[in-house]
């Protein structure tokens, strides 16, 4: 009986550890998506934009291991879902600048979306 309880404990611990590691990967890849979204859209606003921000390389190179093909799938998914975030928002009396955009807001919404989480979860 004690052996059975011991093995059940080991199984539950390893399952919990595996779940925790996958959850961490999802979180980090969502951060990667946020960073790519912001940088890509600001680059569209100003082609000379260079943030000197190495967040993407840090996440994919040092924190998360992901295959090249899955990284390309993720990058395409990010691009496909965020490619128009740089465009000016519709004219409004509350915005004096006709070039006003909501890049950060839209990228944060994308970061928090179920669609992104589900895609990353299926990728892993």
Structure explained in plain terms:
This protein is 70% helix and 0% strand. It has five helices and no strands. Helix 1 runs antiparallel to helix 2 and helix 1 (2-45) runs antiparallel to helix 4 (103-111). It is elongated and about 70 Å long. The model has no long low-confidence stretch (mean pLDDT 84).
The SS-based structural class is mainly alpha
Strand content: under 5%
Q: What's the order of the H and E elements?
A: HHHHH
- Give a count of the beta strands, DSSP E runs of length 2 or more: 0
pLDDT average, as an integer? 84
Number of helices: 5
Radius of gyration: 20 Å
Give the terminus-to-terminus CA distance: 36 Å
**Uncertain parts:** none
As a percent range, the share of helical residues equals over 70%
How many strands, which pairing sense, and closed or not: the largest β-sheet? none
Name the shape in a single word: elongated
């Amino acid at each position: 009986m004690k052996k059975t309880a011991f093995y059940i404990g080991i199984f539950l611990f390893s399952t919990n550890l595996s779940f925790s590691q996958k959850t961490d990967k999802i979180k980090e890849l969502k951060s990667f998506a946020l960073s790519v979204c912001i940088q890509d859209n600001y680059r569209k606003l100003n082609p000379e934009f260079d943030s000197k921000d190495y967040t993407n390389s840090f996440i994919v190179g040092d924190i998360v291991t992901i295959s090249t093909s899955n990284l390309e799938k993720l990058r395409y998914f990010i691009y496909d879902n965020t490619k128009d975030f740089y465009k000016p928002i519709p004219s409004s009396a509350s915005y004096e600048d006709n070039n006003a955009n909501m890049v950060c807001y839209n990228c944060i919404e994308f970061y928090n979306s179920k669609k992104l989480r589900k895609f990353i979860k299926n990728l892993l």
